[in-house]
Write a structure and sequence with these properties.
Aspartate Aminotransferase, domain 1; binds pyridoxal-5'-phosphate; HistidinolP_aminotransfase; Histidinol-phosphate aminotransferase; 12 strands; 2 domains; 3-stranded antiparallel sheet; 7-stranded mixed sheet
């Protein structure tokens, strides 16, 4: 049987998703479980999103609009980017696959950060491409280092900003300096899945760079700040010619009808988005306070999660937290042994989590795990 499977697929690793609440309740016999593992939105989605889903139920038997016209029009109204330059998919996950299939030939290379979103790598391997990684000192993408790793074979560079799983982001000056040196034959994907959470003042509007940088692709999603992870809708911006190519590669009905209607409704509710941003900002300040009090080093985050060094065996800490009803993401699953990545949640859950963490750390043996160089 094994010979039937393409070598590229055999070489891939399966994506390990955060454990679902129902599984942890069942396995550990717990009644109260809080998931802080997958950077989901603890404030749910806007009530308008829910109304849109209910309203759309009457059309359940219809295929969705394959061109996501209404959603792309709403995104055009919001951003000023013409519709022809906007594309949407079943989560930005699906768009990473579409981009990989559109550009990568066997033997070509993608370039990404050492601790960045794993789907760039998986999809490159699927296409028979090679993956080149740049070290990430203190959890930050090292843009000048990335430039030195561009070769004749480099086809796509992925900049994840804010970066998952470290939470770090670069500013406008760094981005502009990088853009200047990316050769014309290279596609630059800026994945901004967490952009709505950014608080650093020198952040930039990536869409402003589209006209002068025809190989720039910007990816965003409704899964995080808009709280629509289950509906699976991500979107992107690129030159018209590239969008036309993506449309050939995409499955025809990639964004379901509920997702399209809900995403339009989500864009209309700016108050909800502001509420999420404000609560996340408060939660982040609380995380920093607690981590400082516990003397645990962390990467300053521009996202809705914080990566920190437990100084212990992260899998042990993870298991002990699970038994207390808190699901987090162990660094060992992300190539960062010793670390935990924890989603910023409601204040009640944040407090509960730190109380559980204190108890766990008191009982855990300290261990010299990897440090971020
Ligand atoms: C950096 C990054 N990009 C893309 C995605 C995919 O998001 P979605 O497929 O839900 O839009 C995620 C999800 O965690 C992510 O962290």
């Amino acid at each position: 049987m094994k010979e039937l499977i393409r070598e590229e697929v055999r070489g891939m690793k399966r994506y390990v998703a955060g454990k679902p609440v129902s599984e942890v309740k069942r396995e550990l016999g717990l009644t109260q479980v809080v998931k802080m593992a997958s950077n989901e939105n603890p404030w749910g989605a806007s009530p308008r999103v829910k109304e849109a889903v209910v309203r759309t139920l009457s059309d359940i038997s219809r295929y969705p609009d394959s061109g996501s016209f209404g959603l792309r029009a709403a995104l055009m109204a919001k951003t000023g980017v013409p519709m022809e330059k906007i594309f949407a998919g079943c989560g930005s996950d699906s768009l990473i696959k579409v981009i990989s299939a559109t550009f990568l030939r066997p033997g070509e290379e993608i370039l990404m950060g050492e601790h960045s979103f794993s789907r760039y790598e998986d999809n490159a391997l699927l296409m028979g491409a090679r993956v080149v990684k740049s070290p990430m000192p203190q959890g930050f993408l090292d843009l000048p280092d990335m430039l030195t790793r561009i070769t004749d074979k480099t086809r796509i560079i992925y900049l994840c900003c804010p970066n998952n799983p470290t939470g770090s982001a670069f500013g406008k000056a760094q981005f502009e300096a990088f853009l200047l040196h990316v050769p014309e034959r290279v596609v630059l994907v800026l994945d901004e899945a967490y952009r709505e959470y950014v608080t650093r003042e020198d952040y930039f509007e990536a869409l402003d760079y589209l006209p002068d940088h025809p190989r720039l692709i910007v990816l965003r999603t409704f899964s995080k700040a808009y709280g629509m992870a289950s509906l699976r809708v991500g979107y992107g911006f690129a030159q018209e010619e590239l969008v036309e190519a993506f449309q050939k590669v995409m499955d025809p009905f990639l964004v379901n009808l509920f997702a399209q209607e809900a995403a339009v409704a989500a864009l209309e509710d700016e108050d909800f988005l502001r509420h999420v941003q404000e609560e996340n900002r408060k939660g982040k300040a609380y995380f920093y306070e607690e981590l400082q009090a516990l003397n645990l080093p962390y990467v300053p985050s521009e996202a809705n999660f914080v990566l920190f060094d437990t100084g212990r065996d992260d899998l042990e800490v993870f298991q002990a937290l699970l038994r207390k009803g808190y699901i987090v993401r162990p660094g060992s699953y992300l190539g960062l042994p010793g670390f935990l990545r924890v989603t910023i949640s409601t204040m009640e859950d944040n407090r509960g989590f730190f109380e559980a963490l204190r108890q766990v750390l008191e009982g855990a043996v300290s261990k010299n795990a990897q440090t971020l160089r």
